[in-house]
């Protein structure tokens, strides 16, 4: 997976979160920010890792997102590893 593909997965993850008020609330709570602050954070490169970490915290979040995005759940973990520079396994 390329870094661009990984960022595309993170962007799709953020869009998925934005479409669910419960997830938006949880993301805001975790970030400690408000909507305006979250928008500002979204412009930073590390925001993609934050989004993927948020999704990966709960199995059901990953499964729901992967199903909506029509990707294997493992690709979310792989995207996180690619963007974070870590070993995906």
Task: Note down, in words, how this protein is organized.
The chain has helices spanning 3-18, 21-31, 35-42, 47-56, 59-69, 73-84. The longest helix is centred in the N-terminal third of the chain and has 16 residues, at 3-18. It has one domain (3-84). The radius of gyration is 12 Å and the shape is globular. The two termini are 14 Å apart. It is mostly helical. 76% of the residues lie in helices and 0% in strands.
Secondary-structure topology with pairs:
Elements: H1 3-18, H2 21-31, H3 35-42, H4 47-56, H5 59-69, H6 73-84
Helix pairs in contact: 1-4, 1-6, 4-6
Would you summarize the structure shown here?
The protein is mainly α. It is 76% helix and 0% strand. The chain has one domain (3-84).
List keywords for this structure.
89 residues, mainly alpha, globular, DUF3572, 76% helix, 6 helices
